[in-house]
Amino acid sequence: MNFLEERIVKDGIIKPGNVLKVDSFLNHQMDIDLLEEIGREFKRRFAGKNINKVMTIEASGIGIAAFVAREFHVPMVFAKKSKSINIEGEMYVAEVESFTHKNKNQVIVSKKFLGPGDHVLIIDDFLANGCALQGLVSIAESSGATVEGLGIVIEKGFQIGGKVIRNLGYQLESLAIVDAMDPDAGTVTFRPQ
Amino acid sequence: MNFLEERIVKDGIIKPGNVLKVDSFLNHQMDIDLLEEIGREFKRRFAGKNINKVMTIEASGIGIAAFVAREFHVPMVFAKKSKSINIEGEMYVAEVESFTHKNKNQVIVSKKFLGPGDHVLIIDDFLANGCALQGLVSIAESSGATVEGLGIVIEKGFQIGGKVIRNLGYQLESLAIVDAMDPDAGTVTFRPQ
User: What is the C-alpha end-to-end distance of chain A, expressed in Å?
Assistant: First the structure.
């Protein structure tokens, strides 16, 4: 097990319905030492790539992406979730339909901060069905930027999101891929990497 | 001028209606070196305080608070904005009424991550009327934690938020206090500190 898998085993809480709670260290309370270690690990996994910008989506991706950007010594841009657009023209917009909730959301990034010269590493905390992540890819591609890769902290390997992104040909690195969870036994099965 | 005031003069954009846009370096695209410098400056200003937790609110506070927490070597907790509560009992909740928009929002923090033993430094990017910040103070106080201080990156000194917090007796440190903006001349007047 790597450092993240060990932390999930130690402090993650498994709930019925394939819910994995990591809010004590990742997405409500944040362990800063862990964020730094995550940053270093993504730097290692994307070491050969010429990355000049890290991109994520609010809210819980921001802390993680900031420490990844620190390792690459590049700026970080976070996409905003928006219900309505009155900023048409100045923004890249992706309409994202939720698999789970059946509703639509808009994800927006200012055109000032992304363009054809950019080589982007996309970062997020969780990947399940991957709706938000697909929106980020769509925005990066439509800006003319190159998506150099995607880094996810925890992927739910039994959901579709990871497959979709890998099928599209992107380098997707997930620090932990959860293939199964047993809420009664309190156990998590990780995919060997 | 300090490093932040210099950066505002260099890259901030002043728009009519007392709007100061800092989205190229602080709250959409983030300059990580600047975040680190902000973290160090808050460490200096609250050096005498016994802080064991940094607290902020999603979304744009998260990146800043993470680097402040790094300096103090403590965890960071970010409050979530919520429209509805079905998590009653497990959460501290503050009802926050917006001065500007007349609507109400809920700000929530899990009871697992805040309590009487905590000495909290509250961090946010902007302070204007201070609705969100008052919600954070309310949550921290109702948890029994001690609010050791509040650190703001940019305070709009001509709005009420800063006065309210200082009148309540808290140590509020704002790295830049904007007393006036002139959109025609493109100038910002900072309060001497």
Answer: 9
